[in-house]
Amino acid sequence: MRIYRYILALVSFFAVYSCSTWQEPQIDEESIEIFIPRDSLRTDQFSQLFYWYHVEGAEKYELQIVTPSFDRIDRLILDTNVTDNKFEFTLTPGTYEWSLRAYNFSSSTGYTVRTLFIDTTTNLAIQKVLLQSPPDRDTTNLTARNFRWQSLYNADNYLFEIYQPTINGQLIHSEKATGNFLNYDVKGEGAFEWHVRAQNTSGQTGFSTRGFYVDTTAPLMPILQKPAVGVFLPPGNIDFEWTRATNTGSSVFDTLYVATDSSFTNIRRKVYSKTGKATADTLSNGIYYWGVRSFDRAGNSGTLSLSRQFTVQ
Known about the structure:
Structural class: mainly beta
Number of strands: 25
């Protein structure tokens, strides 16, 4: 009975201590300070940057936009959760109210509400096309890409262009699109930049630009260095080293596998590395096999290296 009471007391102590130590910040008394756009702004710029100051202890922010107001909602335009303290969005002419609150897993601030008026204009020179996907500096092994951007009011069409490696390089493709997306199968590998501008009979916007990288080549097979074939090692931590040829594609990382069979079906350790070195900890007595496979940022996987056997005893 005495032992039971002692254990119960320990459990209670650690429960209380844990709650007091790891308690999440309460932000319900905080408020959000908005930088732009200012309240009741009237503008003919369709694309707006919503920008506010971070609230300490917040995990995310909820941004909502309705028309014409929260008291009389005709249409919900946007309801999104943002981890950053800024968000860009394109609107059509009209009257809007937008609200913002910060929150974490246990509390939230109140909503801050602002009004925004977007006036109509055919002048595209003051507008901006907001690109959506792929994300800027995206790296992929897919050559078939879907390019998407936010529609711009009063745009008749959009000029889409791809250059390699940058917009100062070679023009790869140029096409007009009437909608806000375009599919294109990129030829070759390497760095590319794409940009889009909106056009109508009165003028055009400037180009909005993003870059991406295509890598369809798998990394080369690593060459194992240490430990040597058939060595006997003491139990505990074991250091491994390997090399591989330098790749000219996207960045490469390696995975070390330690298994009890040469086919690597019974893997006991899996360690990631970018340095050509890794440590497998607390290996007990037995016969092991180790090998390394390389992966790249684009999603390509190389060939598993030739395996080596070692014994822990």
